Amino acid sequence: MTTVPARLIAAATELFASRGYEGTSVRAICSAAETNLNAVSYHFGGKKGLYVAVLHGVGERRLASAQRILATPAATSAELETRLVLFAEETIASWLQEPGVLNILQAELAQGFRNSGPEAFESLAAQSRVLVAFLTSARDDGLLRSDVDVEMMAGGLSERISTQVMYVDTLHERFGNSIKNQEYRSYWVRQVIGLLLHGANA
Predict the structure, then answer these.
(1) Residue 61: is its pLDDT beyond 80?
(2) Residue 179 resides in a domain
(3) What contacts 112, CB < 8 A, 6 or more positions away?
(4) What is the CATH number for 125?
């Protein structure tokens, strides 16, 4: 049986994503989670604590994924590419399972962390640091050009992924295909990683 904190986080994620922080009441969260009105205060210390828990939880999951795939340096160019493909595919799949969280993150970024405070993003920033460290090792080992800005490279990949996920429904409706489709997702990821690593020169 699902625990009360887990039900609260699931309900809060959906409501925060659709209504925003200010538009979501504790009463609405508890009603959706089918629990009593004091549960948010008891388990999270209040609405803000629950909001931070939603963001922190997704950050921890993303960090665990990045560490599993990218924690050790790549030995060859082929391995570098393969592991970046795995990282991108797993990141996309996880975002598609929790699309509302990406909306929450974008809103918080736009508002300067007004509702959560920047500490809520530490684990998400940690995922980025794992990717940057992986790319830095590849550059230091001669698998990337010595003048490559690895932070810009990591940021470019993250932006491409988040854009595809955020607009997945619009893209699917307009073009009849999107990263919802596993076959197209694999194609898209390999194209993006290929361009990132090799460019478009013949």
Answers:
(1) yes
(2) yes
(3) none
(4) 1.10.357
Which two structure tokens, joined as six digits, stand for 37?
């009105």
Mean pLDDT score, 160-167: 92
Runs of H (alpha helix) within the chain: 4-19, 26-33, 39-44, 47-70, 77-97, 99-110, 122-140, 150-166, 168-175, 182-198
Domain membership flag for residue 144:
yes
Which DSSP letter does residue 180 get?
A: T
Amino acid at 94: S
Does residue 105 form part of some domain? yes
Say how many domains are in the chain.
1
Q: What pTM was estimated for this model as a whole?
A: 0.87
**What is d(CA 202, CA 200) in angstroms, rounded to the nearest whole number?**
6
| Residue pLDDT, tens place only, 64-113 | 999 999 999 999 999 999 999 999 999 999 889 887 888 888 888 888 88
Structural domain including 152 reads 54-198
C-alpha distances in Å from residue 62, one per residue of 104, 121, 146, 155: 15, 11, 28, 15
Banded model confidence at residue 123, pLDDT cuts 50, 70, 90? low
- CA proximity to 100, closest of 32, 37, 46: 32
Q: Which two tokens stand for residue 124?
A: 């998400």
> What burial letters (b/e) apply to 33-56, b meaning 16+ CB within 10 Å?
bebeeebbeebbeebeebbbbbbb
